[in-house]
Amino acid sequence: MMMATLKLGSLPPAALGGVAKTKKIERSSGGVKVVGDGGGDNGFPSFLPKEVEKIKDPFARNLARRIKRLPVQIGCSESFIMSSCVQPLVQTDPNPVVLLHCFDSSCLEWRRAYPLLEESGLEAWALDVLGWGFSDLGRLPPCNVASKRYHLYQLWKSHIKRPVVLVGPSLGAAIAIDFAVNYPEAVKKLVLINPSVYAEGTGNLAKLPKLVAYAGVSLLKAFPLRFYANLLAFDGIPLSKSLDWTNVGRLHCHMPWWKDATVNFMVSGGYNVVSQIKQVKQKTLIICGENDKIVSNQLAMRLLFELPKASMQRVPDSGHLPHVEKPRHVAKLIADFAQDGNC
């Protein structure tokens, strides 16, 4: 969402070297398990920024309490990233739904639709893409496209282990296409929501001097800019809700590594998946908010014709994030598509 608003294209990071080693796992005969990420005040995980307490949205507060960190091996046997996600309570679905998020966002983007997907009987995972969300990055790992892709694959390989219905909104659609083409065995179907897939990376932003890049990233975190992006993203919501949702959307920006990770992503070149679109073999559902002010519906129509196996559904009275604005409608579309073996 912010990417399109600021014309940042599909921003990935460069490599800063080093890998985060978790201090919160321990080995046992069964392998690696999570420890030390227990809840803090009001049941929120202790690793979330303290600003979570200021959020009023009950859906965001409830989902925030469910965020966990799972160990994801990214290098040698001792190298793990404690990766944040919302894990399903029951893992029995042969094709679980995996929810990605927009550019510079987090799993809290699914705060309103996630419980509805669970109610429909789906096994749903809401993941934080490497470099965003609430993971413990410690010493910053590379956050470029290849690193994001490999981290997602390792998380899938370690914890999900079944072909998934991969859902990507906005830039998350580019992430989903890139992943589906490179790891087709991991993806059963695709759902792309107001997809931003035609940006050719970060463009000239990749050439910015570091000092200028950091200044721009500081602006990206600023409340006024995030609030303006919210006004563009949603199809008319009350001011009080817009203020609160702005705080939800920028909560991850308070993570200590966020600024470095975002600059790292910016200078690495970004997502450019145009050449991959026709390589997508999976059946795909495109969901479009009819009043999207950030990504033109014409681009969604272009994608519909370029994808080999695609269909489209429109969400009336909705903007760029219909899974937030019209969660019941979007959750039903996802559930019907995921559960229909003939679609």
TrEMBL record:
Q: Which GO terms describe its molecular function?
A: catalytic activity
Note the Gene3D superfamilies from the entry.
Answer: alpha/beta hydrolase
* Pfam families found in the cross-reference section: Abhydrolase_1
Q: Which domain of life is it from?
A: Eukaryota
Q: Where is the AB hydrolase-1 domain?
A: 95-327
Task: Spell out the InterPro entries in the cross-references.
Answer: AB_hydrolase_1, AB_hydrolase_fold, Epox_hydrolase-like
- The protein, known as: Uncharacterized protein LOC111292607
The species this protein was found in: Durio zibethinus (Durian)
Upper taxonomic classification of the species?
A: Eukaryota, Viridiplantae, Streptophyta, Embryophyta, Tracheophyta
